[in-house]
Model the fold of this input.
Amino acid sequence: MTRPNKHYKELKDSYLFYNIAQKTKAYLEKHPSEHLYRLGIGDVSLPLCGAVIKALHEAVDDQAETETFHGYMPECGAPFLREAIRDHYAKRGIELDTEEIFVSSGASDELGDILDMFSEDNTVLVIEPAYPAYVDANIIAGHKIIHLPSGEGDGFIPMPTSDIKADIIYICSPNNPTGAVFSREQLKVWIDFANQNGAVILFDAAYEAFIEERDIPHSIFELDGARSCAVEICSLSKTAGFTGTRCGYTIIPKELERDGMRFNSMWVRNRTTKTNGVSYIIQRGAAAVFTPEGQEQIHKNIAVYKRNAACIMRALDQLGIWYCGGKNAPYIWMKCPDGMGSWEFFDYLLKEAQIVGTPGEGFGACGEGYFRFSSFGNPEDTEEAARRMIKLLGR
Ligand code: PLP
Done:
């Protein structure tokens, strides 16, 4: 008899966004004329930039002529895109071989698929609060999971301790949901820890383009020792508005190996077996992100989101509410006022100010009592939400 993967039974219902949608729907049914100020979304709201649109159109035209038509693409990525990414890293002083860059359909796909390279008896460390996919993908893979809580005391950036026994370590910086970022020194401690213990760090850099402080690392490979312990997973979703267009990339250094097995070669074998590459048209659009025009245009869009973040931060400053994030990240993580629970504060904000955010408890137990605001919404709504928050919570 067929035996399904029993680990699916261990998955908890992903109630976070479902619950938010249900509560919001119920509120609107009762108050059909109300406008909601949506600061909960993790999706972008601005369209693709001009350089990307132009490249996409040109690539579509290429597909119309025999001379320029492209069929199957190389499984690990088109040379033109791998070279563009290599050159982008070189500007930050990081030397990569194009064969260390794997073009993907986005970070979510990679975060799950990459676990194919690790055997079932690995123990995984997830720093919480965390992007929920880390836990779920590892439950499906049958890995033992250790949850490492973080909090206000450590600024939501916990450090390793000698009692942690983990083979795979997830680090997300800038972090979703807390917006916290690892400094060079903090990241180096984790790199040394991973190298000393033979662990592999899966570094999620989905929000690196939001870093504005000069000394915060955009890539784990800016630091010594990372090439022997880290895989970096990147996405153009938030960097360049590719959430619906789908493209990302993953960096696997050639020297990363455990037990005599090289992860770079394993991933080539995996991709050539399990994918036929990302579409030519999408890869052309992605390559345009790395041109000077593309870079200028995506940073103009990011600046819009940053103004939204600044607006929310000003309101929280005025209210004297503790928060982190917002500066190098599109998320602001605030402490719920008056000791309210995450869902209690969600209901209160929705009912009293028509603002929708994300309860921190949905990102792990230590997120209880905190709340996430996203800066990806529309600027007018963000400003009005900030005004309403000051009025409501300043009483
Ligand atoms: N990693 C983090 C931390 C995210 O927040 C997200 C999306 O919200 C992703 C990865 C997934 O990105 P992608 O759209 O490339 O699948």
The chain is about 40% helix and 15% strand. The mean pLDDT is 96. The two ends are 64 Å apart (CA to CA). Residues 42, 106-108, 131, 172, 176, 204, 206, 235, 237, 243, 248 surround pyridoxal-5'-phosphate (CB under 6 Å).
